[in-house]
Design a protein that fits this description.
This is F-box domain-containing protein. By secondary structure, the chain is an alpha/beta fold. The chain has 17 helices and 23 strands. The protein has a domain of 148 residues.
Length: 619
């Protein structure tokens, strides 16, 4: 029947389908497939399966199965090209991990290799990557690409972003450029001079910047695209010579900074989205008119951020922010910033209309710091909230050593008075499942929550496999074993007791108690007396999607038979009509968000612990 529809109608239908549904529709018949080819190959992703072999992309396998249709390459239809790799353990000097394979064939042993051998190995790594990448680029239609993403977390090979490289010569209409490079690599900063030749960018993302040459390339790119750039995301990496990279190294003239040489500075772009990571900010600005256009602001681990927020909150310019994200450790700020600890609250009180608020606050003093009042200030408009709090605490019985630990704030029990649970659709809190149930249960019948995330820091439970523990418990419960038949015991570790603090104690419990607590909460939340609108429940640390795969677990509401057959599902748990009202899910399955009105995946990955690329000097 679909074969009889005009091609124009089929194309319109395809534009609304998610990728998985589109691929399924293309398998119905060869006629449908031929019509849907432009949509099927509109976005193409090439991946390196392992971060220990980043030069091994799946280009050959793609071309083998999808290479050509007659004399035309399917890549002629590609408008969005993504080059990706996992970034888990190798977070700095990533190019060198490939060198293990390349140096193995050299005459000298790896222990005696010198700088020349390492340079040669790095060059070969880039050549291997370039050979595969240029095969793909050669098949793209000129000036058709709209998005180019480089997420290998390595240096970019020659011929792509060089001056006169492929993108600047053959893809002049590129509007979105997203880069994750490795500024910690000794050979970084090369092959980037072509950034300034891209003149149509509206969105620019770059994380992993460290070298002055990289900063200069970024500066020139912003200068070239300033008039139409609306979305800018910058992430710096610390170096031993520059502990912080200031915003002014980009040569941007902040609002109200006074007259200066136009050749040396660029007026601040009229951005609507600004995201900064480890960028040292200014706290003495006098005019904030350029910030009026901002609708979303993200400041993660930025030095001097408290002074910046204090100055921004004192501005007469009215902010129109709809989204705000802040990750900040108070202990990392200058000693004379003590009076700034309330800057976050003052800033949130300085405007209204916030719809999405995401906070990860560490080691803030409690006196006068009532962030719950600031959250309540935006109650009429707030649709999503992420809140994660950490505090320095003893990690040994004698109290000689301290480390940051998750804490559950004292205002969690009063959550219904702080946020409107009849309006909020996504919520992420650093608290235990039992504490979450206590605060959500009174208003459960009227709740509009679609996504709920119970957060904890994955590094604190790195010795655990949360997914295995929960699945093991679900299988035992399904097979009729009593709940007391636990999975393997895990010894308790020292936890933050709170001392004189009013924080609710955030224990790191043994495996059985925590998994049972979560399963009991999930049964209630998806059950008849739970949260009627809830579609997805997340537990753990989803920083950068899958950095902590063993410290995260995701479930979805069980619907019609076969609905829970996607990635991450467990047949032994799902295929039981009289079993649990939920089933395991996976972030790789986009269908879990079908009944969610907001970007649920973005909520789970908000306020991550650390950056994608990290300096060895801060680990």
């Amino acid at each position: 029947m679909l074969d009889t529809l005009p091609c124009e109608i089929l194309t319109m239908i395809a534009d609304w389908l998610p990728p998985a549904s589109l691929r399924a529709l293309g398998r119905v018949s060869s006629g449908l497939y031929s019509v849907l080819v432009p949509q099927l190959y509109r976005a193409v992703t090439f991946r390196a399966a392992s971060e220990w072999a980043l030069n091994v992309l799946d280009v050959d396998s793609f071309l083998l199965h999808h290479g050509h249709s007659g004399t035309t390459s399917f890549l002629q239809h590609t408008r969005h090209l993504y080059i990706q790799a996992p970034i888990h353990l190798a977070r700095f000097n990533r190019c060198a991990y490939y060198n293990i394979f390349r140096t193995a064939g050299l005459a000298q042993g790896p222990s005696t290799l010198g700088a020349a051998d390492e340079t040669r190995a790095h060059e070969q790594f880039l050549n291997d990557t370039a050979d595969q990448l240029h095969v793909v680029l050669a098949q793209l239609k000129p000036d058709s690409l709209r998005t180019f993403q480089w997420r290998l977390g390595t240096c970019i090979p020659a011929g792509v972003l060089d001056e006169g490289g492929y993108l600047s010569r053959h893809q002049k209409r590129l509007t979105c450029l997203s880069l994750v490079t490795d500024g910690t690599c000794p050979h970084a900063r090369h092959h980037l001079n072509g950034l300034s030749q891209l003149s149509s960018l509206t969105k620019l993302e770059w994380e992993g910047i460290q070298h002055p040459a990289e900063v200069e390339s970024l500066r020139q790119c912003i200068r070239r695209n300033r008039k139409h750039l609306t979305d800018l995301s910058i992430g710096f990496v610390l170096s031993p010579n520059a502990r912080s990279l200031r915003w002014d190294v980009l040569g941007l003239r902040w609002p109200g900074a006074g007259p200066c040489d136009e050749d040396e500075s660029i007026p601040f772009p009229p951005l609507s989205i600004l995201s900064l990571y480890k960028v040292s900010l200014s706290g003495d600005l006098r005019d904030y008119s350029s910030f009026r256009s901002l609708q979303a602001l993200s400041l993660r681990d930025c030095p001097n951020v408290l002074r910046f927020l204090r100055s921004l909150s004192g501005s007469r310019s009215t902010l129109n922010l709809r989204e705000f994200e802040l990750c900040c450790d108070f202990l990392l700020h200058e000693p004379d910033d003590d009076y700034e600890f309330s800057s976050v609250v003052r800033f949130l009180f300085s405007f209204r209309g916030l719809q999405h608020l995401r906070l990860r606050l560490s080691n803030f003093p409690e006196l006068g710091f009532r962030v719950e009042d600031a959250i309540r200030h935006h109650r009429p408009t707030l649709e999503s909230l992420v809140y994660h709090q950490r505090q320095l605490a003893p990690i040994d019985n004698e109290g000689l050593f301290e480390d940051d630990r998750d804490v559950s704030p004292d205002w969690i029990p009063g959550l219904p008075a702080i946020v409107d649970l009849c309006r909020v659709t996504t919520l992420a809190l650093c608290t235990s499942p039992s504490a979450a149930r206590m605060c959500l249960q009174p208003a459960a019948a009227y709740s509009t929550l679609q996504v709920l995330h119970l957060r904890f820091s994955g590094a604190e439970r790195i010795h655990r496999d949360i997914r295995h523990e929960v699945l093991a418990l679900l299988r035992k419960r399904r097979s009729g074993c009593p709940p007391t038949d636990h999975v393997d015991e895990v010894a308790e570790i020292p936890v933050y007791s709170g001392g004189e603090s009013d924080h609710v104690e955030m224990d790191t419990p043994s495996a059985p108690s925590e998994t049972e607590d979560f399963v009991a909460f999930a049964e209630w939340a998806f059950g008849p007396s739970g949260l009627p609108a809830l579609q997805v429940l997340a537990f753990g640390d989803f920083s950068h999607n899958d950095r902590y795969p063993g410290q995260q677990f995701l479930v979805r509401r069980k619907g019609q038979p076969g609905q829970c057959s996607g990635k991450g599902s467990d047949p032994s748990v799902c295929n039981n009509p009289n079993g649990f009202p939920f089933c395991p899910a996976s972030m790789d399955d986009p269908s879990i968000w079908d009944r969610v009105s907001l970007d649920g995946a973005r909520l789970l990955t908000a306020c991550p612990g650390g950056g994608l690329i990290e300096s060895p000097y801060e680990l």
